[in-house]
Design brief:
40% helix; alpha/beta; five-stranded parallel beta sheet; single chain; Rossmann fold; 445 residues; 2 domains; eight-stranded mixed beta sheet; 15 helices
C-alpha cells in the first residue's frame, strides 16, 4: 500500500485536482501538456524562451503538426498557462521534465539542461512533489545526478518527495500514434514514486508499463533507439552492396516485408536525423566505458550512419561527371527537403544540413527548398547556415540547377514538376519511384 503522502497525491491525480507542470515546451513537452489538458488537468508549462511562451499563450501554432485547440481552450478556461517565470514551480503537484539532452562536440552526454533544471526545482522543492524526467539519457542519470541535487535540500526521495523516470516516445508527424495512444514505461525511485507515476501516466495514456527502477526505464529508451540505429545502419550498408550488384535495395525491402514473421522493414537514407537516433546510442557507449565494456556493434553502426552523407555527395559528384559532363566544383545543387523526416519542420540533426556543408566544401553551391522550413534556424553544429531561406519550387527555378538532391521526401512537394524540369535528380528516399516517376535523369543514392 502507498504511504499516506503518496496516496494523497494519487487521490488528487484521480480527481483531477492535481496540477501538472511541464518543463520544456518543445516536441515532447507540448504534446504532453496537451494530453494532460484533454484529460481534465490544470497545466502550467515552463520554458526559458519568452517569445515561445507568448506564442503558445496566444494560441499561435507552436509546432506545425500539433493541433493547438486544447491549448486555446485551456487558456480561455484558465486551465493552462505557459510561463518563463520559474517562481511558479511552487504551483504544480507533479513536474515533468522534457529538456534537451544533446551530445558535446566530443560525442559525450551534455546533461547541462537536466542539471540546471534540477537545481532550479531544488530551489522550490517541497514535500509531496512528484518529479519525473522524460529526457533521453544514460542509465543512472535520475539516481546519480538528479537525486543528490534534490536531496541536498534536506528532503529525501521516497519519503518527502517522489522521483521517477518515464521516457518520452514521441514520433513527430505520426498521425496514427499520438501521446495518449502510446504506452508509457515508468520507473520510480521506490514503490511510492512508482505508484504515483503509474497513476499519473495511467490517467494520460492508453496504458503504463512499470519497470523495476529508474535505470531500467532509462535503458528501455536507449534500447528502442539503438535498435533503430543499428538496423538503419544495416540497410544503409546493404544499399551499397546491392547497388554494386545492380540490385535495388528498396525493391528488396518491399519484397522481404511480405514475410509475416521474422522480419521488420527499415529503410536507407542520406544519414540519421532527429534528436534521438543519431544521439542516444552514444549515451550508452559513453556510460559503458565506466564498466570497461566496449560497445563495438553500436559504434560500428554509428560509423556507417555518419558516413552516409559523404557517400551521397560522392554519388552526386559521380553522376554529375558521368551523366552531365559537369565538374562538381562550380556546380549548383538544389537540396530538396531540409527537415530530418518528412512532413515536419524539425531540422534537429538533419542530414540535409551536413549535405549542404559537404557540397559547398567541395566547391559547389547548395540551395534548399522545404515547404515546412522557410529559413534555417540557428544550431550548434551548423551555425554557418543560419538564416538561409528556402527557394520557391517552380519549373523555371528547378531548371536552373545542375542537379536536384532529394534529402527529405515531404508529401507536399510536386515531384512530377521536379522530374519534368530537373537536369539531374539524385533521390536518397526512393520517392520518385514511389510516385511512378522514372527516366534517364533520375538516379538513386
Amino acid at each position: 500500500m502507498p504511504s499516506e503522502p503518496a496516496q494523497h497525491l494519487i487521490d488528487r491525480i484521480r480527481d483531477r485536482s492535481a496540477v501538472i507542470g511541464v518543463i520544456g515546451l518543445g516536441y515532447v513537452g507540448i504534446p504532453l501538456a496537451l494530453a494532460a489538458l484533454r484529460k481534465g488537468f490544470r497545466v502550467v508549462g515552463f520554458d526559458i524562451d519568452e517569445r515561445r511562451v507568448g506564442e503558445i499563450n496566444a494560441g499561435r501554432e507552436a509546432i506545425k503538426h500539433i493541433p493547438m485547440d486544447a491549448i486555446v481552450t485551456g487558456v480561455a478556461e484558465g486551465r493552462f498557462a505557459a510561463t518563463a517565470d520559474f517562481m511558479r514551480l511552487a504551483e504544480p503537484d507533479a513536474l515533468l521534465i522534457c529538456v534537451p539532452t544533446p551530445l558535446s562536440r566530443h560525442r559525450e552526454p551534455d546533461l547541462s539542461y537536466v542539471r540546471k533544471t534540477t537545481e532550479t526545482i531544488a530551489g522550490h522543492l517541497r514535500p509531496g512533489l512528484l518529479i519525473v524526467l522524460e529526457s533521453t539519457t544514460y542509465p543512472g542519470t535520475t539516481d546519480e545526478l538528479m537525486r543528490p541535487i534534490l536531496e541536498a535540500t534536506g528532503l529525501k526521495s521516497g519519503t518527502d518527495f517522489f522521483l521517477a523516470y518515464s521516457p518520452e516516445r514521441e514520433d513527430p508527424g505520426n498521425g496514427e500514434f499520438g501521446t495518449a495512444d502510446i504506452p508509457k514505461v515508468v520507473g520510480g525511485d521506490g514503490p511510492d514514486a512508482l505508484a504515483i507515476t503509474e497513476a499519473l501516466y495511467g490517467a494520460l495514456v492508453v496504458r503504463t508499463v512499470p519497470v523495476s527502477s529508474t535505470a531500467t526505464a532509462e535503458a528501455v529508451k536507449l534500447t528502442e533507439n539503438i535498435f533503430r540505429a543499428v538496423n538503419i545502419a544495416l540497410v544503409n550498408e546493404l544499399k551499397q552492396v546491392y547497388a554494386a550488384m545492380g540490385i535495388d535495395v528498396w525493391e528488396v525491402i518491399e519484397a522481404a516485408k511480405t514475410k509475416p514473421f521474422g522480419y521488420m522493414p527499415f529503410y536507407p537514407g542520406p544519414g540519421l536525423g532527429g534528436h534521438c537516433i543519431p544521439i542516444d546510442p552514444f549515451y550508452l557507449t559513453w556510460k559503458a566505458r565506466e564498466f570497461d565494456i566496449a560497445t563495438r556493434f553500436i559504434e560500428l553502426a554509428g560509423e556507417i550512419n555518419t558516413q552516409m552523407p559523404h557517400r551521397v555527395v560522392d554519388r552526386l559528384a559521380e553522376l554529375l561527371d558521368r551523366e552531365r559532363g559537369r565538374p562538381f566544383s562550380g556546380a549548383t545543387i538544389l537540396v530538396l527537403g531540409l527537415a530530418y523526416k518528412k512532413n515536419v519542420e524539425d531540422m534537429r540533426e538533419s542530414p540535409a544540413l551536413k549535405l549542404i556543408e559537404l557540397i559547398e566544401a567541395r566547391g559547389a553551391r547548395a540551395d534548399f527548398h522545404d515547404p515546412h522550413i522557410p529559413a534555417i534556424r540557428p544550431s550548434r553544429k551548423h551555425g554557418g547556415l543560419t538564416a538561409r531561406a528556402s527557394v520557391a519550387l517552380m519549373a523555371e527555378t528547378v531548371a536552373v540547377y545542375d542537379a536536384v538532391l532529394i534529402a527529405t521526401d515531404h508529401d507536399e512537394v510536386d515531384y512530377a514538376l521536379v522530374a519534368a524540369h530537373a537536369k539531374l535528380i539524385v533521390d536518397t528516399r526512393n520517392v520518385c519511384a514511389r510516385n511512378g516517376l522514372a527516366g534517364p535523369t533520375i538516379f538513386k543514392a
